[in-house]
Amino acid sequence: MEKDVKDSLNKEDDKKLKNDETTEKETNREKRCIKCNNLLKDNDKYCIICGTDQTNPGKVKKEKKPKKKVELKPIQLVIIASVITLVVCMVLSFGLYMYLNDRNGNIDTSNKNVTIDDTGIADAVSKVYDSVVVIENYVSGRLYATGSGFVYDTDNSYGYILTNSHVVSGATSLNVVFTNDEKVEAEVVGNDEYSDIAVLRVDKKYVTQVAIMGDNDKMRIGDTTFAIGAPLDSDTYSWSVTRGILSGKDRVVSSSSSYMTVLQTDTPINSGNSGGPLCNANGEVIGITNMKLASDQIEGMGFAIPIETALEYASQFTSGEDVRRPYIGVAIYDSAVSFFSSETEVVIESVEKDSPAEDAGLRSGDVITKIEGDEVENSSYFKYKLYGYDIGDTVKITVERNGKERTFDVKLSSDAENT
Q1: Does pTM surpass 0.70?
Q2: pLDDT tens digit string along 82-128?
Q3: Catalytically annotated residue among 148, 166, 195, 355
Q4: Catalytic residue, candidates 196, 234, 240, 366
Q5: E-assigned strands of 193-329?
Q6: CB contact burial 8-47 (16+ within 10 A = b; e otherwise)
């Protein structure tokens, strides 16, 4: 019994010793790759040579290939930068447009509402169209010239037509033609060459429409205007309508031997339109077309006598009054400053006896330089300024006499044919 126990203990000791020797041998053994036998470190999972997984011989570690560095040429960089810049600018521009559009769409218009409607002026034209007439100027039975005019008033017997003085000037007889082709003889009621205003009359039964007068105080620069007349060939182009805007007010322009204050418009005005109406967008007459500036350097500059001025003269004509203007009693002429100069000076040729000029002290040979402080360019401009004052006014006229400048107070009266 004791022997069996001893043998059993010896066997267990031998087994334990054998196990310890196996463990020590495995511990001292080098770690190598199971595929290529490359020496490995204890913690290497993959072989650094063949990449084999030491725990799974069928699996090989995939090495990552290094990324290839792309180098761009300078021209490619410029193109890419340009495209990026263009895209950024387009985005910013669109954003700015949307911002401004939204901003404009939200402007406070509580103080003033503006409605723009450009559908045409046919309704306005219809309010004046049939009042416009073609005027035929006959000299000794032969047609000399044609122009335009319009019926502005009537009484129990007659229809009264406004036109330009130069349209009827020199006529031995006058006919007017209405839009219904009715042609009748017209009579001159009054004619003033200086203002270029004339009034005719016809039997009232021929009148089909009377024009409505407008108010230039209510007109603004840029307002729509239109003209009606018979440009060029009256048989072909009678009652032509042209359209534009009011380009200016109170323009001082010269015409032949006089100056006048007129309205400026870019409404096309041609030969034959003279005497016809210039109207506003409501079809009301605001002026009488009387001239235009024409040259290769000028385009769209037409002029019309303000209707207020025309009606003042018309009232004097129809009431039988003579046109009265301020008078000082001098005869004047333009003289060249020198042989080599285009400038002129206004010289008093003669002074009437007992006239306002003589009473004030003006003499023959005096050179008029100013009127009320405004420099005088020529005799036409002097008359224009003088006629702007009323009879009975006292004006200061400055002259040059013997190389010295003197100023005289002249009281204006009304009388004769001289200034």
Answers
A1: no
A2: 788 888 888 887 777 776 665 554 444 444 554 555 567 899 999 99
A3: 166
A4: 196
A5: 197-203, 212-213, 224-229, 240-255, 258-265, 277-280, 284-292, 302-306
A6: eeeeeeeeeeeeeeeeeeeeeeeeebbeeeeebeeeeebb
